[in-house]
Amino acid sequence: MATADEIVVRSGAGRALLAGPVPACPAGRAIVALPGGEVHLDPAAPDDPPLLVLRDPAEAGPAVAELLGPAALDAVRRAADGPVTTAWSPGSGWAAVRRAGLCRWLRRHGPDVLPAALLDLDEGVAATATELDAWEHTAAQGLLSGSAATAARLSELARIPGLPPTPPGLPELLASALVATLEWAPLDAATADRLRHEQDLGEALRRFGAAGRTIDWSALAAIPEVGGREPAAAGAAGGADDPGYRGSVDWHQVPRGVLDTAEDTVSWTVSGDVIEVNVRARPGGPDHPGLAFRVYAPSDPFPLGRSTLHRSPDGTRFRGRTRLRPTATGPGGLAVDVFDATDRRRPRLGVDAVGARALRWAARGVTLVRLAGTGVTADGVAAEALREAEALHDEVAETHPDDERRALALRCAARCAGLRRAVLVRAGEDRQASAIGRAWTDVGEPVTAADVAVPDLDRPGWRPLAAEHALTGPGVWWG
Question: Which of 273, 269, 319, 314 is nearest to 293 (CA)?
Fold first, then answer.
């Protein structure tokens, strides 16, 4: 078995080669395209070796060396004769790819609506700074082009007198974004001129030793492209306000930023054969005319009914009602799946719904752990979120009918336990942390040593991005 400083290169499905460990990803994974393959990152273990799936090892060669080091490239060339174990030496492009992946994961899996323009700038800069697939570079150009005006505006704000200190990470991001946007993004002449002007001013201030002015996150809220910086449900498990039965929203079924991301925000009542559904909206979130719901009974793959959801007059919820076809199941045994009818996906029901809930709780835990780097102490809430995720992953490991899914869920539970240990140690709760460690002492395959390892939360992968610092702005936090 490879150690934390080693990777194994071996044959995968088809003709692909796999370089690095298959990550557990209890909170979901981030995938970034490479020439001839892709890289899979685990945000719950951002400093561990990534997994490279190489469909064309020859084309992927430069990216392998850039991400895993020259020894890994040599191992890829020799892997046709059997598995090769080699030292992991993160190359020059690893930090940039990890940053792009974390931006992508936060946008897709995180419970909070982060400033989209800052995520776009961060991901765009990272994607243009390393050896990535042509599609990724095209996507990065689009991200940088779409947020170019925001970059210029933020740079202009930095010179306004009397504003509080600049948020951590923003000056460095802006300096890189101005350069990358001018080099990579298609821009109109006026925007390009603004960016060149800001770049020249920044260089002059650095050269002549002037500190310039600083900006505050409260000022960012006035910029339409940035807004939406309040945490919708970081670590919270809210409850539906309406009487009746309860359910939760599967984040991957609905558009981001429209609905509250807490648990149990779906409620329903049944009168005769009519069901009425209420879903809590995100405070200040936009409307979305494509929202709908469908109702299922256990062991029945066909919905009992479905209908659209419409925003209530006070804006606090989305409501809908429909007639159900006959079923012997009572209201409490129903499952209500809220989804986007304009981008329909198959519902996750039964044990798959438990797995989706486990991912949500793990995502809350991971994002809360990351917020410690912004100066916010949320270790107690983070530990509880990870404990809940561990229990749910354990339930999937015990009940899922698929062997591979059971094995993966057990690894996810172990990873949540290892991360929870790190959080408790940081909080000074050594006794509780030791108890968790003893519970996993005798676990063997499929759980690996890396799955139960206690991560070092001071390593670079846990440093928050500029967009995450937005959550710690004045007067903004969870109740």
Answer: 319
Interstrand relation of 291-296 and 84-87 (parallel, antiparallel or unpaired): unpaired
pLDDT digit string (tens) for 85-98? 888 888 888 999 99
Q: What is the pLDDT of residue 238?
A: 45
Asked if the bond preceding 46 is cis, omega within 30° of 0, the reply is no
User: Contact, 133 vs 67, CB < 8 A?
Assistant: no
Name the nearest CA neighbour of 45 among 479, 474, 457, 388: 457
Q: Which residue has the tokens 């995720």?
A: 389
H helices present in 147-220, as ranges: 148-157, 170-184, 189-207, 217-220
The string of DSSP letters for 1-33 reads ---TTEEEEEE-STT-EEESPPP--TT--EEEE
**Helix intervals (H) in 210-285:** 217-220
Between CA 1 and CA 3 the distance in angstroms is: 7
Q: What pLDDT is attached to residue 224? A: 47
Question: Which residues sit opposite 31 in a β-bridge?
Answer: 40
User: Averaging pLDDT over each range in 107-116, 264-273, 389-398, 460-469, which range is the top one?
Assistant: 389-398
Which residues, other chains included, contact 313 with Cβ-Cβ below 8 Å and sequence gap of 6+?
none
CA gap 258, 208 in Å, rounded = 47
The span from the CA of 339 to the CA of 356, in Å, is 14
Residue with tokens 């500029």: 466
- pLDDT tens readout for residues 265-294: 999 999 999 999 999 998 888 899 999 999
